[in-house]
Amino acid sequence: MNTTQTPSRVSRPLIGVLYMCGACALFPIMNGFVKLLAATYPPTQIVWFRIVVHLVLVAIVFTPRLGLDLFRTRRIGLQFASSVAMLLSTLFFFSAVKYVGVAEAIAVSFVAPLAVVFLAWPMLGERITPLRIIAVVIGFGGVLVVIRPGSSVFQWASVLLLGSALCYALYQIIIRRLAGADHPATSIFYSVLLGAILLSAFMPFVWKGPENWGDLGLLLSLGALGGLGHYCVAKALTFASANLIAPLNYTQMIGSVIVGYLLFAEVPDLYTWLGTALIVGAGLVVTVQAARARRHP
Fold it and tell me: Hey, which residues does 179 pair with through a beta bridge?
């Protein structure tokens, strides 16, 4: 029997905001490093470093605190399903970011919370209102503005980015179903376990040795940045409500623009900003309505 308790909530909104801002600063840096590495190394190898280092760090940090409870789960099927969804989301994103700007990639990924709203209806039985349906449609319209089907900007990488967002939405739905069944750290561990096993078996066929110490450092940093970012999100939610934290996720666009400009001299065009505004606006509408629904059920 798993006797480990879920960490208790403490209301300190400012600390929660600071943790979330830290996460939103780390993720664009990780994405920039991925784009740098993608010019030299296969995406499967980059993803392998990302999830294996993440897996090892989670085990090192939480095993002394939780012991064997870290590995105990009541819903092994759902845990492995979440791992598949996370693997596909990461693989799609890392494969695409080589061919598109960092800001454009993160803009398309913002559609994931809207996809959660739509998928939560059939999968979780959560009520969906006409306003939320309109917001989802507007959000997906924003994605079309960013990737512009029919133009030179639209390419298979744009489809991969959308697939990554949808897989991440599915991952979030599964994590919601796991809430209360397993400790959050257990879910974080299993979210990358199956992917690490599958890609480790595949590595001998695609492995390319790091060309220098700098590349090795960047490859190892992916798991550290990603793992620390997810830890900051989890900590943020222990200090502040999801309604306060969720909109801060969109500040990743600021970091993505900075990283894209500094590393690759990328400047988002007008269509990217317009599409991002539609996606973010739709996401904020959904967040505000969800907050009101909880206050006035």
Answer: 182
DSSP labels for 20-88? Answer: HHHHHHHHHHHHHHHHHHHTTS-HHHHHHHHHHHHHHHHHHHHHHHHGGGGG--S-HHHHHHHHHHHHH
Using one digit for the tens of pLDDT, what is the confidence trace for 156-181? 888 898 899 889 888 888 877 776 77
For 111, the token pair is 């559609």
Helices (H), 148-269: 156-178, 184-206, 213-239, 242-245, 252-264
Q: b vs e for 226-260, b when ≥16 Cβ sit within 10 Å of the residue's Cβ?
A: bbbbbbbbbbbbbbbeeebbbbbbbbbbebbbbbb
Q: Point out the least confidently predicted range of 57-61, 82-86, 182-186.
A: 182-186
- The per-residue pLDDT for 152 is 57
